[in-house]
């Protein structure tokens, strides 16, 4: 076992900054925007509350998200719990991960020592295709569970209504239980904000997972939830509830009220989400233009703040520098240019010179109640990348 690759990137940044070394952070992907004031005020208002609740959450949360709710300290531990619960509920069941996928999905099943099948996209810079899913899920006749991330980390791509409808047909065919990781759902870029498909509109064996970390920029608050959309999942829900209550009893009560406020989408939450949609679209379009000039292939990011960037067109040049893997490339750029990314291997991508870049290294200031956003670090990142590739 080793530390999470994304959190390791954050540690590298801290270490370099302590040494006074210039650093350009495209690693962790933490939301750089300030959280809405309404959420800060809600936390202050309820900070005195200290009672135990339970893992189903307060009544008001269940009224918004549904009765089959499990809350936890962020989505990450809840994904750990649901994969563990599935392995206990269905002893012969199979868990599937779509590759590339967020690093923690695989890290967790490795820790749990659960046999996991990978469904590898033919195009790591694109999206999973229904026929690829069908082929992968056909490997077992046992009960199956898969994590479907929309929009996706690490590609920064979302699935449209039409695409989700076709994918749902495959899940229905195999009666697959789906953890629908929708943590970036509100962050589809402005131009496409109404185009994203929602799996629960087409399929019932769905468990939605989300948190306060991404859309409202409250990653450190550590509050997330799983919403079981069908009573057909009762056995899995009951098992997950038991495990959750045995491990952490309940999340802090004040943060439940913060989540409640966020889910009401007050004015400043809506404004923040819209600001992010516009900002990240602008940055994505700028980055795509610059990456194309460098003859680099990349995922056409249209949600959240991620790119997968392929350096395969520079393979011979990189090999001459003793760079043969994505890990080699990642470490070389950190050491020689201060450019922090995450190696493609962390997302299950093998034998490809691919890195994930998070375009969140922004300088954001509030001046006279107006938000000023400076992209200078992103511009400098791309400039240094250009210098490296043109040597």
Automatic annotation (TrEMBL):
Molecular function (Gene Ontology), one example: pyridoxal phosphate binding
SUPFAM superfamilies in the record: PLP-dependent transferases (SSF53383)
Any one of the GO BP annotations: amino acid metabolic process
UniProt entry keywords in alphabetical sequence: Aminotransferase, Pyridoxal phosphate, Transferase
Cofactor: pyridoxal 5'-phosphate
Record carries keyword Lipoprotein: no
Residue span, Aminotransferase class I/classII large domain: 50-356
Family label: Belongs to the class-I pyridoxal-phosphate-dependent aminotransferase family.
The protein's name in its UniProt record: Aminotransferase class I and II
């Amino acid at each position: 076992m080793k530390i999470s690759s994304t959190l390791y990137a954050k540690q590298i940044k801290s270490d370099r900054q302590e040494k006074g070394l210039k650093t350009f952070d495209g690693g962790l992907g933490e939301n750089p925007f300030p959280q809405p004031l309404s959420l800060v005020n809600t936390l202050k208002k309820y900070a005195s509350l200290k009672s135990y609740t339970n893992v189903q959450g307060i009544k008001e949360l269940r009224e918004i998200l549904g009765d089959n709710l499990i809350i936890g300290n962020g989505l990450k531990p809840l994904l750990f719990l649901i994969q563990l619960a599935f392995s206990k509920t269905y002893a012969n069941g199979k868990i599937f991960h779509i590759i590339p996928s967020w690093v923690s999905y695989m890290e967790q099943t490795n820790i749990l020592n659960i046999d996991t099948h990978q469904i590898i996209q033919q195009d790591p810079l694109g999206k999973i295709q229904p026929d690829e899913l069908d082929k992968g899920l056909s490997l077992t006749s046992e009960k199956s569970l898969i994590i479907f991330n929309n929009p996706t980390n690490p590609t920064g791509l979302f699935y449209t209504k039409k695409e989700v409808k076709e994918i749902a047909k495959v899940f229905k065919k195999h009666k697959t239980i789906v953890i629908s990781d929708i943590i970036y759902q509100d962050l589809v870029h402005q131009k496409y904000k109404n185009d994203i498909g929602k799996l629960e509109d087409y399929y019932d064996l769905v468990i939605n997972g989300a948190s306060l970390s991404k859309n409202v920029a409250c990653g450190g608050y550590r509050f997330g939830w799983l919403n079981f959309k069908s009573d057909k999942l009762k056995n899995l829900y009951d098992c997950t509830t038991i495990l959750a209550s045995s491990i952490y009893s309940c999340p802090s009560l004040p943060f439940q009220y913060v989540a409640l406020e966020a889910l009401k989408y007050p004015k400043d939450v809506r404004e923040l989400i819209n600001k992010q949609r516009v900002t990240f679209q602008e940055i994505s379009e700028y980055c795509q233009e610059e990456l194309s000039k460098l003859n680099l292939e990349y995922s056409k990011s249209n949600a959240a703040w991620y790119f997968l960037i392929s350096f395969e067109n520079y393979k011979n040049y990189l090999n001459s520098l003793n760079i043969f893997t994505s890990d080699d490339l990642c470490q070389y750029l950190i050491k020689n240019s201060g450019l922090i990314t995450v190696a493609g291997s962390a997302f299950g991508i093998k034998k490809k010179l691919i890195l994930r870049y998070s375009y969140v290294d922004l300088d954001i200031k509030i001046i006279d109640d107006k938000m000023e956003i400076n992209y200078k670090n992103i511009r400098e990142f791309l400039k240094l990348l250009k210098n490296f590739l043109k040597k």
